[in-house]
Amino acid sequence: MKNPADIIETERLALRRFTRDDLLWLTELNADPEVMRYIDGPMSPEATKDMLEGRILRYYDEHPGLGMWVTVERGSGRIVGSHLLNHIRGEAPIQVGYRLFKSAWGKGYATEMSVALLEYGFTQLKLPTIVAITDLDNTRSQQVLLKSGLHRNGERRFAAYSNGAPLAWFERAAADWLAERRP
């Protein structure tokens, strides 16, 4: 099966796989207190390296078709952050998500690529359901998820996120999402 970097492009964005060469910019992104405000706070360079090796690079082989990818502006080639379609850590559900540099905020990039990843997950991977989680106070991210076609369905707790605090839970079944998107 092709990986999303081979098949997922939008009008303005493209995905590509992470490599070890992405550590520098990923460290910068993960160290930004504003970017990481709702994602358990800034990460150390060591924690980012561990994330790159385990949660990103190794994950590609362990879960073909899923992962976290570098999000690039097609016109400029500039890295704007990352998008993901992967398991919630330690759990079975597959989630869609994103982490963008502040310079990419407010441009619709999170929604644009999230919609493309939902389409990919539902049509190419045949996932029956895709979910998302976000901090209860992160209303901007909640709006992105709603615009992407997910529905808010209460709150959930996960040991690996937000120290087990409740998170906003979004989900959507493939049949419902696809029916809503198709003419």
Verbal overview:
- This protein is α+β, with helices and mostly antiparallel strands and about 180 residues long.
- It has a single domain, classed as Gcn5-related N-acetyltransferase (GNAT) (Aminopeptidase, 3-Layer(aba) Sandwich), CATH 3.40.630.
- Helix 2 crosses helix 3.
- InterPro entries: Acyl_CoA_acyltransferase, GNAT_dom, N-acetyltransferase.
Largest sheet: 4 strands, antiparallel
Strand content: 25-35%
> What's the CATH C level?
Alpha Beta
Q: Determine the number of helices (DSSP H or I, runs of at least 4 residues).
A: 6
The CATH architecture = 3-Layer(aba) Sandwich
- The number of distinct structural domains comes to 1
Give unreliable regions as ranges.
none
Cα gyration radius (Å): 15 Å
Q: What is the residue-mean pLDDT, rounded to a whole number?
A: 93
Find the count of extended strands (DSSP E, 2+ residues): 7
What order do the SSEs take from the amino end to the carboxyl end, as H and E?
Answer: HEHHEEEHEHEEH
- Distance, first to last CA: 28 Å
State the helical fraction: 25-40%
Major beta sheet, strand line-up:
1-2-3-4
Structural class from helices and strands? alpha+beta
CATH topology (level 3) name: Aminopeptidase
Morphology:
globular
Name given to the CATH homologous superfamily: Gcn5-related N-acetyltransferase (GNAT)
